[in-house]
Amino acid sequence: MRKPNVSENLAIELAFRIYGLKVNTIKKMVSYDDQNFHIFVSNEHYNPYIESTAEDGYTLKITNTTRSAEPDHFDIMHSTMNHLNLKGLRVPVPIKNLEGNTWKMEVVPLLNEDESNSSDKRECGIHLLTFISGVPISTVTYTSDLLFQWGALLARYHDAIQDFRCEALYKKKVFWNLEHVPEIENFMDGLDEQKKNLVLSVLKKYPEEITKNIGNAPKCFIHGDFNENNILVQIIKNESSDCTSYSVDGILDFEDVHYSTYAWDIGVMLAYAMLDCKIVDPLEGAGHALAGYLSIRSLSGLELSLLRMCIACRLCQSLVLGAYSYKQDPRNSYIIISAKSGWNRLEQICNISNEDLLNLWKKIQ
């Protein structure tokens, strides 16, 4: 996988040449594998498919070489976003370029695999999405109400995606899915013995708790990465009382949408909900997020029984692969964000029985 290395000047040129848009301001955005720019554009443009330019601007995305080479990658993602937008969810919407398509392959400069500068160039997929205003939920303090809303938003996503049909999406392979969890054992060399043993204790239970049961759990086209950086909140200020409240209402990043179980999607969300709980106990925080989900959609006994293991599996994935990637490139601190509290959360979820955890959550619902 090679990451694009596009300068701001080249990004401005691409926006004009591919989309007919004149960029007024541009800002580079943080990204794990790709390169993203937030751009504001002039009202004067040359794109016949744009009636009026978006006030909040656009996200110009240059996709890494691996994802760019995947068959149907952009069409799948764009179809998903358009479907959810029509269902009333606040998601980015793909913009057609001057050729009438929602993406285009362009030869751009690349970074080396260790993210050092390179003279190499290769084709990468470029697409433009409407920018969704708000702040990531990771930037505000998690209250029980905020966590409840987070869970409820995932339930709204699951309701909206139920009637979505996309044959290519059934075949899509995502490394961060539940089925690939056992493979993280190949990336554990840099971990100390205590952390390694903790992860191995989870993997040891995988055949009995996941493999044996997952085939009976309901499935849909899950989001796959309902984490704290992909969920947006609107800040609501009450001038009379000088109080601030938050509305959780935006969903980003549909790169990992794939066909899997509802339980895995919920477990991923609960894992990330636990990470930054400061004023709410992390296990109880997951319970508030689950309560929000259950306020809209119900889960079977089997699905509920899978959640603890799904949380543990996602934490293991994030921690192990994050540590491995950081070892390859110590400059990229973004990839080990979850490690700050993740190992403690993994211990917490491993040290409570399924029965005790479900009983704790029942008291919250």
Q: How would you describe this structure to a colleague?
A:
This protein is of the alpha+beta class and 365 residues long. The protein has 11 helices and 10 strands. The protein has helices at 8-19, 65-68, 73-86, 144-161, 167-170, 193-211, 262-275, 282-294, 301-328, 339-350, 354-364, and strands at residues 21-29, 35-45, 58-62, 104-111, 117-130, 135-136, 219-222, 231-238, 243-251, 258-261. The strands form 3 sheets. The protein has a 5-stranded antiparallel sheet with strand order 1-2-3-5-4. A 3-stranded antiparallel sheet has the order 6-8-9. Strands 7-10 form a two-stranded antiparallel sheet. Helix 4 (144-161) runs antiparallel to helix 7, helix 6 runs antiparallel to helix 9 and helix 9 packs antiparallel against helix 10 (339-350). The radius of gyration is 21 Å and the shape is globular.
